[in-house]
Amino acid sequence: MRFFIKLLVAIPFLFSLSAHAWIPNGDVVTIDEIIQWNGDGPVYFKLSNNHSCYIPAAEKNAYSLILALYLSGKQASIHCFDSEESVGGEKGHRLHRIIAVKQ
User: Fold this and answer.
1) Which of 8, 11, 44, 95 is a Cys-bridge partner for 54, taking CB atoms 3.0 to 4.6 Å apart?
2) How far is 35 from 46, CA to CA, in rounded Å?
3) Is residue 65 a part of any domain in this protein?
């Protein structure tokens, strides 16, 4: 009887682990190209999956990470917002999240 009570307590716990675990979708890309104009315009970058994203010039930390990933050739899981915008003549999606992947 005691075993069944433990089992009844353990089953919901096991199901709750998957609900609270956050796992990236696994789509890893490299940054193939960076486009930056002089001045305070946004920084565009093209990914190996043919998507284009951008970050506003004021986001220096994100720009540093993008530049480091580009120069090192390392992979990352990069997600940009769905809506496409045209800023400075280039079309792209604003950066939402970067997950650096250790190789």
Assistant:
1) 44
2) 8
3) yes
Is position 18 within any domain? no
Q: Considering the chain, what percentage of its residues have pLDDT values greater than 70?
A: 74
The total of structural domains in the chain comes to 1
Whether 77 is covered by a domain: the verdict is: yes
Backbone angles phi, psi at 90, to 5 degrees: -105, 145
Asked, for residue 38, whether it belongs to a domain, the answer is yes
Bigger pLDDT: 9 or 62?
62
The model's pLDDT over 79-102, given as tens digits with 9 standing for 90+, comes to 999 888 887 778 899 999 998 877
Structure tokens at 79: 């997600």
